[in-house]
Amino acid sequence: MRADAQRNAEKLRTAAAELFHERGLQAPLKEIARRAGVSHGTLYNLFGTREALIDEVVTDLAAARLGEVAEQALAHEDAWGGFAYYIETLCELQATDPAISDVVAGRYPDAERLMAVCERSHTAAARIIERAQQAGTLRPDFTHEDLLFIFGTNALVARAAKDTAPDAWRRGVAFMLDGLRSEAAHPLPTGPLTSRQLYQVMGNLTGTP
Q1: Which end of the chain is least crowded, N or C, by CB within 10 Å?
Q2: pLDDT in tens, 32-62
Q3: CATH code at 46?
Q4: Same domain membership, residue 45 and residue 91
Q5: What is the pLDDT of residues 83-138, one digit of tens each?
Q6: Is there a contact between 115 and 161 (Cβ–Cβ < 8 Å)?
Q7: What torsion do the CA atoms of 140, 145, 149, 150 make, to the nearest 10 degrees?
Q8: Same domain, yes or no, for 153 and 170?
Q9: How many independent structural domains does the chain possess?
Q10: Among candidates 123, 75, 85, 122, which has minimal Cα distance to 103?
């Protein structure tokens, strides 16, 4: 790559990181190019697609942050404490970092490296759930699909309340966690979402086809 192209690519990475953090992964590519001081065509020539730019800019950061949260949750001496920490911390990341919120939602499935990070995150989440259920503190009918549904709805609340009540999501999460304790469990009125149903519902929530 020529020196001028390398400089433009670095400008675009910096601008994309800023705008993805401010607005989420749907930030307009034209705005990224404008902030970087290059043409829209230059962005496409260097990165090709939004997904390629996301993989270039977001994936490593997302892997580090999600991996750290899962590692600390699994290292928690108390299984329920680790489970609650995992949910509370990821919900806080959703409220404070729109880019991570979109990663958790799996919003751009064509970003291959990012989807691999999501898969590793899902595997860790399943271990966190299983650990709390084996300890008898998390209700046994809670599923991984239920967890992703919680994250999907929390993302909507956090985004909608960001300017008027930025901590509103905390109240909802606290109510939800109390309801997930095994001693608070009552029979549920319907079964969990299937993986296919969850995929369709999350697509509707995030606007992803």
Answers
A1: C
A2: 999 999 998 999 999 989 999 999 999 999 9
A3: 1.10.10.60
A4: no
A5: 999 999 999 999 999 999 889 888 788 888 999 999 999 999 999 999 999 999 99
A6: no
A7: 40
A8: yes
A9: 2
A10: 122
